[in-house]
Write a structure and sequence with these properties.
The complex is a heterodimer of chains A (141) and B (280).
Chain A: H1 2-34, H2 39-42, H3 54-65, H4 67-70, H5 86-89, H6 93-102, H7 117-140
Helix pairs in contact in A: 3-7, 6-7
Chain B: H1 2-14, E1 16-17, E2 39-49, E3 56-68, E4 71-82, E5 87-98, E6 108-119, H2 141-144, E7 148-162, E8 165-176, E9 183-193, E10 210-222, E11 233-242, E12 247-256, E13 264-276
Antiparallel strand pairs in B: 1-13, 2-3, 2-13, 3-4, 4-5, 5-6, 6-7, 7-8, 8-9, 9-10, 10-11, 11-12, 12-13
Classes of the chains: A mainly alpha (141), B mainly beta (280).
Chain lengths: 141, 280
């Protein structure tokens, strides 16, 4: 009876650690996708950058389409990597837009070109606003 | 029975809902697959009028699962009720869609493979192929239900999205495994959200939640007689409403374009999406 419990405990530990490793590997693949963004796409400017409503609309879209994987606060997501990480926050708006559009299909992130282009820019604006907000918090401390 | 009920409740408790962002089409497929881990349940009723025969209501229950970001699998259970006739189960279909290319392109291909085990009384019109014609629907259920149709359905789905528009083309080939000739068909769809940018407010009735479109589909004959002769053809405008509560409602009236087509079809769909089972 005791040996059965030990086998179950070891199995659970192995499964938990392997799924954590798989998630970590998946995260690095999605971050690596940033390195594959073509130069032309990276250089694209966000047409909604100056639009005051864009980040608000982007937040709404993020909660609807992205939060399930990336987490409600864009970090510690169950399936997707943190979007507050430097790999994301230092990327250009054009690079983020490209990754949202193309996803990282082999790493489990679907393509989001089903959202019209303005909505993908709105999500990009929201994601970039997270870095700006974190920077302001850091300065005030 | 009690255990089944409790298991169902448990699934509902552990499953979290997701935004439903379903394809707006009824017959045509675009290149967007279900998100990985997401499970969608849908009910798709169809009313058909038959000139010189009995009108019918057919329907399918659909369970769709995103196995990976490049593979979606679906199970359909079909049934129908024919006026002045009977109500019956019309078989099941198991469909799989695969995305071979990683990145988005001007034209995005998806490979579709479906196994069908249905009977001749199946009237869900999930695809129109070969020489499927209106007179097939006049046959009484007592006769048509005995026709066993085990078929392999292959589709090449081509889809493009630009400036908010989606344009999808499906080429269909169906092989009855009893040795009948290959049958061919097509489906074309074009759609666009009523607003491209999202409003900052949370809302159900915002224009961005509505997608309008048009689809056209029909048979192209078979290997023995390829072409439009003795085939049925349909044109159907559609509207889809993606609610923030993970529900999608779709509606489409359709009209037959020639004498071999049913004169009128009315399709509805209601679907609900669970983002993942066993979620937080």
């Amino acid at each position: 009876m005791r040996s059965d419990a030990a086998v179950i405990a070891v199995t659970v530990l192995v499964l938990a650690s392997s799924s954590a490793m798989a998630l970590k590997k998946q995260e690095s693949k999605i971050y690596a996708q940033m390195g594959h963004v073509p130069e032309e796409a990276r250089a694209r400017a966000n047409p909604l950058e100056a639009n005051p409503d864009a980040a608000l609309a982007g937040r709404k879209l993020y909660e609807r389409h992205c939060a399930e994987c990336h987490g409600a606060t864009a970090e510690n997501g169950r399936k997707g990597p943190s979007l507050r990480a430097p790999e994301v926050q230092t990327a250009s708006a054009g690079a983020l837009f490209w990754v949202i559009t193309n996803g990282s299909v082999r790493a489990g992130m679907p393509v989001w070109s089903r959202l019209p282009e303005p909505q993908r820019w709105q999500i990009t604006t929201y994601l970039k606003s997270l870095g700006a907000a974190a920077g302001q918090e850091g300065q005030s401390k | 029975m009690c255990r089944v009920y409790l298991a169902g409740l448990a699934i509902l408790f552990v499953a979290s809902t997701a935004d439903a962002q379903e394809r707006p089409y009824f017959v045509t497929y675009d290149h967007y697959l279900e998100e990985p881990g997401a499970l969608e349940l849908a009910f798709n009723p169809l009313f058909g009028s038959v000139s010189g025969g009995n009108d019918f209501v057919a329907g399918s229950i659909e369970v769709e699962y995103g196995a990976t970001a490049w593979w979606t699998t679906e199970l359909y259970l079909d049934g129908q009720h024919t006026e002045n006739d009977s109500t019956l189960f019309a078989g099941f279909r198991w469909e799989n869609r695969f995305r071979p290319l990683e990145l988005e392109h001007a034209i995005n291909p998806i490979l579709y493979v479906e196994y069908e085990d249905v009977n001749g009384a199946n009237k869900v019109l999930s695809a129109v192929v070969g020489h499927d014609v209106a007179s097939d629907f006049a046959e009484p259920n007592s006769e048509s239900r005995h026709e066993v149709e085990r078929e392999l359905e292959l589709k090449l789905i081509l889809s493009s999205s630009a400036k908010g528009w989606n344009l999808s083309e499906n080429l269909i080939a169906v092989k009855n495994l009893a040795g009948e000739p290959w049958e061919f068909g097509y489906a074309l769809g074009v759609s666009r959200p009523l607003a491209l940018a999202a409003s900052p407010e949370r809302c159900s009735f915002c224009l961005e939640n509505f997608v309008a479109g048009l689809e056209m589909y029909g048979g192209l004959g078979d290997t023995e007689q390829f072409g439009l002769a003795n085939t049925s053809q349909y044109l159907a405008p559609l509207i889809a409403w993606n609610l923030p509560s993970a529900v999608t409602l779709k509606f489409s009236p359709g009209w037959g374009l020639n004498d071999d087509s049913l004169p009128f079809l009315l399709r509805f769909s209601v679907s609900y999406e669970f983002s993942s089972l066993g979620g937080r």
